[in-house]
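Model: You mentioned two targets. I'll fold them one after the other.
Researcher: Yes, keep them separate.
Model: Target one:
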Amino acid sequence: MTKDEIVKALGLVGHFEGGYFKETFRADHRERLGTPRGPRATMTSIFYMLTSDSPIDVFHTKHSDGIQFFHLGAPLIYHLIHPDGRYEKVLLGPDIAAGHRLQLAVKGGTWKAAELESGTFGLVSEVVAPGWEMDDMILASRADLMALFPQHEPLLSRLSRA
């Protein structure tokens, strides 16, 4: 399938971080969890796709833990900056013999960005627990991220919002 066929078939829409997404599950059938930020669903899930016309997911973090699962297309490069400032690069893709990973767990509080380096699309799912809410999203400016992690200036300049 082409990128446009997948967007249409899955009902994906543009995402404010970059790429396309659609929420596919929210555990509304269970009692909500109490968190310091208020009640949350126990779990949520989305499809998320970076494409040649929207190849970057800018740096952001959230309070909840998330797991990305690779599905289709070209590999996605995930850039992680851990709370202690340690950088980690992970290639999520189909070729495990070449070192690609099929899934990636990211702890809440870890800054994450992703990019499609080549190809027309890369499709993943993300499961978040406790479930994702917009109030849990932290999308810092480039200046704020540079103040926290000046050692990662070239990466932050490329993969963050001004």
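Model: Target two:
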Amino acid sequence: MKFPPISRVMSDGPALARAHWYFRHATHLGSRVRVWGNPIVRNEGKLIVGDRVRVVSIAATVELSAGEGVTLELGDGTYINNGCSIGATLSVRIGPNCSIGSHTTIIDNAFHSLEPERRNEMPPSEPIVLEENVWLGIRVIVLRGVTIGAGSVVGAGSIVTKDIPPRSLALGMPAKVVRSL
């Protein structure tokens, strides 16, 4: 089977039209936003999509969800790769020029308490902030209440449970800073 050249598959025309369709319920849609594939986008709150955001949802579905009365913000120039799940029940803010690796999960609530008698209760949400130019590797999980500083990199498969300072490389489960950048 012969495949078309990647330049034709990833062309801007259809990707721009797809962005307008999938982000039709966004509170704000910036210019030159592109979507490849078929993401699931749910907005019951405030969905802000900056200029030149790129979403690739070809090999695995990207899920973006802003619950009722909450904010999900995707900064200018942000890239979201296949299979990512980003959910806001309070606030998730992804700064400009961030790169989100495939199958990454960013969610600001655990959706259940740990105590056995309270497992059906939803705990309070805590905001997540990715500052400018953050790079999350493949299969990173970012848990509630975390801020990842500008220019930081989180290695593949890491689970971020605590804040990461700016210009840091963090790895592991839980993610720990291994060096400054």
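Researcher: Noted. Anything on target two?
Model: The first helix runs from residue 6 to 9.
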